[in-house]
Design a protein that fits this description.
This protein has about 150 residues and is mostly helical. It has six helices and no strands. Helix 1 packs antiparallel against helix 2 and helix 5 crosses helix 6. The longest helix is centred in the last third of the chain and has 29 residues. The chain is globular, with a radius of gyration of 17 Å.
Length: about 150
Amino acid sequence: AIEALKPRLEVCSFLGDKRAPDIMKKLLEVDIYNHPSIQRAASELREHANSSNAAAWKMRLRTRDLLGVMNCVQCNLCRLHGKVLCLGFAAILQVLLGNKGRGEEDCDENPDPYSLTRVEVGAVLTVAGKLASAIEQVEQLRALDEA
């Protein structure tokens, strides 16, 4: 999804923040987005969503349900992080799959990274950052285990 958003993120003005383009450039230069396993997973998700027996709307509905469940979380910080992650995953599905499977024939649209709002783009970047941090920690633990 980050690779699909790359053209949009490269030209964004970031509301006039002078630091943001440098940070975004570093983020977009990370090699993990082009890793074969990441690209294969995205391709398999698209292939499955386009198959005749798949119901992409069910996956979207689950992200909406998960967002609703986050309202039951008592800790405000945990609730906020959970909602941002749910929104980020829903936006990633939007970028990867488009609006197909919404149940209305005229609503089926192909994936378009420019259709996301700035809040959704921020949520996608937050999810990417959290996943990258988790991968880095796993790699550190793997190095410790091998030592």
